[in-house]
Write a structure and sequence with these properties.
- This protein is α/β, with parallel strands linked by helices and 523 residues long.
- It contains 17 helices and 18 strands.
- Strands 1, 2, 6, 7, 8, 9 and 16 form a 7-stranded mixed sheet that branches. A 4-stranded mixed sheet has the order 17-15-10-18.
- The structure holds flavin-adenine dinucleotide.
Amino acid sequence: MEPVANYQCDVLIIGSGAAGLTTALQLADDLKVTVLSKGPLTEGSTFYAQGGIAAVFDENDSIESHIEDTLIAGAGLCDPEAVKFTTENARASLQWLIDAGVGFDQVQSKDDSPTYHAADATGKAVQTTLQKKALEHPNITILERYNAVDLITGSRIGKPAGCYGAYIWSRPKEQVETVAAGCVVLATGGASKVYQYTSNPDIASGDGIAMAWRAGCAVANMEFNQFHPTCLFHPNAQSFLLTEALRGEGALLKRPDGSRFMPDFHESAELAPRDVVARAIDYEMKRLGADSMYLDISHKPKEFIQHHFPTIMEKCLSLGIDISKEPMPVVPAAHYTCGGVKTDMNAATDLPNLYAVGEVACTGLHGANRMASNSLLECLVFARAAAKDILSKQSQRQALTHLPGWDESQVADSDEEVIIQHNWHELRLFMWDYVGIVRTTKRLERALHRIELLQREIHEYYSHFKVSNNLLELRNLVQVSELIVRSAMSRKESRGLHYTLDYPETLPETKPTVLSPKLITQA
Ligand SMILES: Cc1cc2nc3c(=O)[nH]c(=O)nc-3n(C[C@H](O)[C@H](O)[C@H](O)COP(=O)(O)OP(=O)(O)OC[C@H]3O[C@@H](n4cnc5c(N)ncnc54)[C@H](O)[C@@H]3O)c2cc1C
C-alpha cells in the first residue's frame, strides 16, 4: 500500500497571485482548497502591476472597443472566442474584485478602452486584498515557501489519465512531500526569468509551463514574449521599471555618446510603439556592444520631474543618479509571457483534472501581443470560469488518499552548486542574445544546441542530487527555453512580438503555434 499523502484537499492551487487567489476564493465556500506559494505569499507579478485593469463598466463605453483594441494588439492571432468571453465577463469580474474590497479610486479612459486603477499600485491593492481574504477563510490552507516540483499524473502512478496531486518541496524542511487533490490548478505566473533582464520578480521561472509539459499537456504561442523597453540598468536596481509615461512627457533616448537614435527608427521617435522602441534599443546596444542606452529627462525643470515622477526620482537618487541633471541607463526587459499552457474557455488543459489560469496559460486572448491592461483581467475572468467548471464536476471526482512517496534513496547532497549557478547565467544570457527581441534562424539554432547540452547536464544533476530551489528552477527554465526556441523556429514570419531578420514580413494567413509533448515523442 502506498503511504498516506502528506496533504489532502479537494483542489490544489499552485500559485498565490491574482489567478491563484481568485480561484481559491471562488471555490472555498464549497471545497477544501490548498494554495502554494514558492516564496513569500505576496511575491509574484500581481503585486508589482502598476497600470490598471481593462474593463467596460460604463454604459457609455462599448465592449466593441475593448474587443477591437485587443484584436489590434494581438496582430491577427487572438482567438476571437477568448476575446469575446473575456471582454463580456470583464465587468462582472471587476465587480467581484470591488466587492472583495479593492478600492479603484481612479478611472481613466485611454484610446477608448477604459482601464481601472487603484492609484499607481493596482497590483498591490489586488494582491493584498485577496491575500487577506484567503488567509481568513477557514477552507483555505496556505503553504508558503513550497515549490511544486512535478504533477502526479495517472501514467506516473498507474491510474487513468488525469492529475491526482503534486510533489512539493518544502523550502523550510528541505524535503519533498505529497499533496493528493481531486484537481489541480496551475497559477504559477510567467516565464520572463528565462531572459537575463526582466521586470518580473524572481518567481517567474515558468514552473507551471514546464510541469504541464512534462505531464503531457500542449503549450501554445511560446514564441511571443513581451519586452518592456526601459528597465533601469543598475546592479542594485533589479527589475525597476521606468514607465513609458517618461517618454510621453518628453524624455529622450540617447546613445552613450549623447546622440539620439529613435528618429532613425520611427517617425514618432520616442513615442513609437513599445515593440519598436524595445527593438531599437536592442539594435543599438548590439551594434555598439554597449551595456545600456540612456533615457534623459534632465532638460525638463526639476519641479516638473519631481511632480510627475516622484518614485522614479527617489529611486534613482538612492542609487546616486540625479535624473534632473543626468540620464538614466536603460535596457529592455522581458515583461510578459503571452504563450503558455493551452486551455479552453473553462481554463481546462488537455489533462483531465488539471487547469491553468493567469500568465501560465494561453487562452488565446493575447494572440501575438498583449494589450497592457488585459492580463490581470484574464486572471480574474478565467479564475472564475475554472472555479465554475470545477464545482460543476466535483461530484464526479474523488481525491486519492495514498500516493507514492518521493524517492530520494539514490541521491546525495549537491557538492557542486557552482555548476547550477553557471548554467543559470549561461542560459539567461544566450536566451537574451539569441532568442530575445530580434531573432535569426542561425541564432535560434545555436540556442537550441546549447539548450540540448544543458538539458543533458541538468538531467544528470537532477538524477543524482537532492533538489534545491535553484536546481528546480533551472530545470524548468531550460524546458521553457526549449519550447520558446522550437516555437520561434516554426514561425516563418515576423508578427507581433516575434521578430526575425530572416522572415521580416507578416504572412497574410497564420495560426497559433501549438506544441504537444505527445507529437514530439512520436516524431
Ligand atoms: C512590473 C509589472 C507591471 C505590470 N503591470 C500590469 C498592469 O498594469 N496591468 C495588467 O493587467 N498586468 C500588468 N502586469 C502583468 C500582470 O501583473 C501579471 O500578468 C499577473 O499579475 C500574473 O498573475 P498570476 O496570478 O498569473 O501570477 P503571479 O502574480 O506572478 O503569481 C505567481 C504565483 O505562483 C507561485 N509559483 C510559481 N512557481 C511556483 C512553484 N513551482 N510552486 C509553488 N508556487 C509557485 C508564486 O510564488 C506566485 O505566488 C505587470 C507585470 C509586471 C511584472
